[in-house]
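quick one, two chains, predict together pls
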Amino acid sequence: MRKGLRMLVCFASVVMMLSACATTESTQKPYKISQQGTVIWNDEFEFKLPPPGWKLVQVESGGEFGFGFLRTDPGQFPSQSMFVYDEEPFGCSTKFEDREEEFFKRYLWASTLSISMEILEKHNVPVLGGEGLAVVAEGKDPIKKEKVKSKVVFGKRGDRVVAFYLTQWRHIDGTYDPSAFEIFDKFVASFKFLKKSFYETL
Amino acid sequence: MEGHQRNLYLYERFNAQVVGVSRDDVTTLKYWAKSLDISFPLLSNVTGFLGNYFYVKPEPGTENYPIFGRRTVIIDKKGIIRYVRDGSPDFKDILLFLKKLNQEGGKP
């Protein structure tokens, strides 16, 4: 196949792998509150805020910036819950089933060296005005004595797959708090795009 | 690399082909590509002469290691280098540049 332009990318694979997943807290407020009480984020997204106690975070993932909310939970370390919206979730496929497999190869990769994630539930869900895929998974680390339960919802923005995900970390003997999952579900259900993505405008 | 893989359909739209170059050996690259589900060509350049050809400097602290610094280069259909950027690829910038280049040059 003849192509007009040739693009060459030079890279250092080790450096590439280390560049993912830095997490930083936001110091600015890139949002405003609408008259209906919803949040307008960068004039691009609209959603309902979680209740008080959830702290705003911005997350770098896959070279793109997403955002989300973090809550410190009562109990032994590492009790916390965090959910984010990610424009570029791990993986490349535009089919949900394939993307889910690719995603879980790298999801929580720094932790999964000693944690094997097990898929507990998987089903289609309505999201972002179309059909999406929701996956609930759990992993346990018997050495660090930690466990994590996670819900990932894949949806579409134009041709591309986007994702929402919640992670809830607990001590191995701790109990999960389902209220965080309910708050996450409400956040996802309320989420709307206010304009086309960059990729849809090309 | 995942970012490039996600953008393949857009590169195709703009008549561009992405190629990765690494100093890793072929076997390592095969496994690496498989692990990331990469489908575009990855070139193994163990001796590193392509790095010299494209003036790729090692990233600080890696001078004594056989790895390239990261550099994105866009070459047009005449073989002229039109875009160079060091560090992490700026995918949106790359796509906008390719769109403009494709509009300038038309389809081959």
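Residues 26-197 of chain A form a domain with the Protein Transport Mog1p; Chain A fold (CATH 3.40.1000.10).
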